[in-house]
Amino acid sequence: MKLLRNMDQLEERADLLPWLYRVATNHCLNHLRDAARHGENGGAADFDVMPGPAAVSFPARQLAQRVLARFDEETAAIAVGSLVEGMEQAEIAEMLGISTRTVARKLERFLTQAKKYVERS
């Protein structure tokens, strides 16, 4: 809806994709925060993946969801942005409104802890 409401602003943007990521991420983080404030289950949603050659197998998806669920929303967003979407740390920092050092630190911590979790599983 934000995209449709602000269509006139998009014509001027050369950086459309980062803006879309930022809007989608902020919307999801706000939704999770609001749900937590109201005592609702704000856990990770189980999104459908389009079938195709790039689709990850179901067990791998489940493992990825379990790993991501062990981290706060910001760290999960950093991990997905970097490891899945291939975004640069500076892009992620700008999108989330944090420093690149914070992105690097949280990504490093994510990788270390995720590796330990997967090895134990």
Task: Give a written overview of the molecule.
The protein has one domain: Arc Repressor Mutant, subunit A, CATH 1.10.10. The longest helix has 22 residues, at 16-37. The chain is an all-alpha fold. It has helices at residues 2-5, 7-10, 16-37, 58-69, 73-84, 89-96, 100-120. Helices cover 69% and strands 0% of the residues. It contains 7 helices and no strands. Helix 3 (16-37) crosses helix 6 (89-96) and helix 6 crosses helix 7 (100-120). The chain starts with a helix and ends with a helix. It is globular and about 50 Å long.
How does the SSE layout of this entry go?
Elements: H1 2-5, H2 7-10, H3 16-37, H4 58-69, H5 73-84, H6 89-96, H7 100-120
Helix pairs in contact: 3-6, 5-6, 5-7, 6-7
CATH topology name:
Arc Repressor Mutant, subunit A
Output the number of helix runs. 7
- Tell me about the largest β-sheet: none
> What's the architecture, going by CATH?
Orthogonal Bundle
The unreliable regions are 42-50
CATH class term = Mainly Alpha
Estimated helix fraction: 55-70%
Structural class: mainly alpha
Strand content of the residues, in percent? under 5%
Q: Order of helices and strands, N to C? A: HHHHHHH
Tally of separate domains: 1
Q: Quote the distance from N terminus to C terminus.
A: 40 Å
